[in-house]
Target: HNH endonuclease signature motif containing protein
Amino acid sequence: MRAKKNEWLTHEYFRTYRIANAVDTIMRDPFSYLRHLEGLTVNDGIYDFLPHWQKESALHKFIRYVADEILMNDTDGPTRVPFGSDPIYPDWILPVDAAMLQYGIIDEPLFFIPDEPVPEEVTDSGGDSSESKDPYHVVNACYDYLLNLRWTQVYEDLMSRITDEVFYVMFLNRRALANLNEFLAMHVGEVASDHFGTDEAPLVDLFVRDGELKRVRPPMWARRAVFYRDRGRCTACGTDLSGLIDTLNVGNYDHMMPLARGGLNDVTNLQLLCENCNLKKADKIVAPSNRYRRWY
Model:
């Protein structure tokens, strides 16, 4: 059978774990980062998360947002990556160009940092210290470059590659997924039908009542992804649900953050439970198991 076009990922792991750690850290304590997260959820930003069973999942959207923030922060220094064959006097580029080169999206850097940093004396309550800082024109040039780059196809290609890699790493982490969906549920729970404009009328049909999305059966691709991620076992008690050992055990695709509490119909909000564990959990918010089978 011919492989599907998007079945395989080629991983370069450019900052993959740094971004994954940032996502996990933010989700462990989102209230400490609310100011940084405003662009994701305020001004109707939460509406992008509402449609049922998007393959561009809630985690994809969140990774993209965090990765973009990290790349923007690189311009503040700016963070430099050496480029060229001269190890002593290399040209300097931003990490975003280094990433596009590593992923094969571009063949040559699109931007070179114009100047070397210059020393400045920095005085604070702790005394004098010498730090290496960039002139304003250098910082501004780096910022302007990335600001314009974000509108291009090469940047979109880069964000897609980074997002796919980080998602691959993080999808196994049910605790991080539950934390993400609990954060989003706070905003979903505040959505009321009278908030929608005329062009957003289709969103009304997604809800059974204000703040609660309709229950929609997960599509096959979502069930397969969760089944194999959880190794065909109940994540709470470990009961085999593959049907190979016991054909009477029934698997349930449980919303970790219940729909009644603002949960999403999203692949990142699912876990595999046996019928008994699912009935015990009902619509309560229960931290998912952090037990995983060893690979060998």
